[in-house]
Amino acid sequence: MADTPPSMPSDPGSTAAAPANPTRPTRISGIWIAVVIAAVVLVVLLVFILQNTESVKVSFFTVNGSMPLGVALLLAAVGGVLFAGFAASLRIWQLRHRLKSSERPPRSDRILPDGQEGIDGQA
């Protein structure tokens, strides 16, 4: 096959020059999916709030007031999500702190500046 140009493989079944999967999901396609899902959720929340406009009395510790039922439930849900996120952040911090402290050498093996002695009397 001397007539084959050098840029073309001699074997027609060769995949050496085949491009990667062109339909592979990208970051931008993932963002568009997230935007569509967020828009659907916002529309559902808007419909929920507009259908639950009856005013209800809300009391929180010493604060009293009235607001539409949908808004009160939405605020309660947002408060719950924020509380759960705060608790999860504390747990992640705790695990990272534990991991970092387990990677440190024991106190007696630590090198101290200026020749100071460690806890068990070693330099």
Strand content: 5-15%
Major β-sheet annotation: 2 strands, antiparallel
Q: End-to-end span in angstroms?
A: 76 Å
Query: Segments where pLDDT lies below 50 for 5+ residues?
Result: none
Structural class: mainly alpha
Compute the CA-based radius of gyration: 31 Å
What proportion of the residues is helical, as a percent range? 40-55%
Q: What is the number of beta strands?
A: 2
Number of helices: 2
Series of secondary-structure elements, N-terminal to C-terminal:
HEEH
Overall average pLDDT: 78
The gross shape turns out to be: flat
Spatial strand sequence of the major β-sheet: 1-2
Walkthrough of the structure:
Strands 1-2 form a two-stranded antiparallel ribbon. The protein has a domain at 27-105. It is flat. The chain has helices at residues 27-51, 69-103, and strands spanning 55-60, 63-68. It is built from two helices and two strands; from the N terminus they run αββα. It is mainly alpha-helical and 123 residues long.
Secondary-structure blueprint:
Elements: H1 27-51, E1 55-60, E2 63-68, H2 69-103
Antiparallel strand pairs: 1-2
Helix pairs in contact: 1-2
Looking at this protein, list some descriptive labels.
flat; mainly alpha; 123 residues; single chain; two-stranded antiparallel sheet
